[in-house]
């Protein structure tokens, strides 16, 4: 069965560039971003891992651990890291899983045979502190990911987890949010003291509660 939103993220043990991990234990009470890249020493992947390394402090602010995976081994990853650091003007600061036996790739459905029957596609999984999958994205090998979008989704997920709100199209942190339809009009003032505006009975906006 393919993984779906709300499923428990499969647990696993693996060697990484930062040592052996048990995935759920490694996540602890943090959010997690698990993302796959097709292969080491490839151009798009090099830019992606460099981009994530530069954003590490942003993930830290969101109590989020990031970890990458490909079907190459840890020694290959370690050799590649020097290229990433050199070409992307950064310093790798998060682990890469060695997955030669494709255990992790298969657990998470990262190999799509009609795209490539041996390498992983560019998958992204956001996992909550409850170990449940909150988001899944799949990109083809030819398209590098927008990690600002991953941060934006994390902001939305974390906000929705704490308050009875959703985020509208193209929302960015600090902008107005949508009040959940489960909230009755008479309960809005107590829950959202900053006020609200009703565009339609089903579309009620309020300033972001934690700003």
UniProtKB/TrEMBL annotation:
PROSITE patterns: THIOREDOXIN_2. Gene3D superfamilies: Antioxidant, Horf6, Chain A, domain2, Glutaredoxin. Residues 3-159 form the Thioredoxin domain. Pfam families: 1-cysPrx_C, AhpC-TSA. One of its GO terms (molecular function) is thioredoxin-dependent peroxiredoxin activity. Keywords: Antioxidant, Oxidoreductase, Peroxidase, Redox-active center. It is an enzyme of class 1 (oxidoreductase). PANTHER family: MCG48959-RELATED, PEROXIREDOXIN-6. NCBIfam families: PRK13189.1. Belongs to the peroxiredoxin family. Prx6 subfamily. This is Peroxiredoxin. It comes from Adhaeribacter terreus.
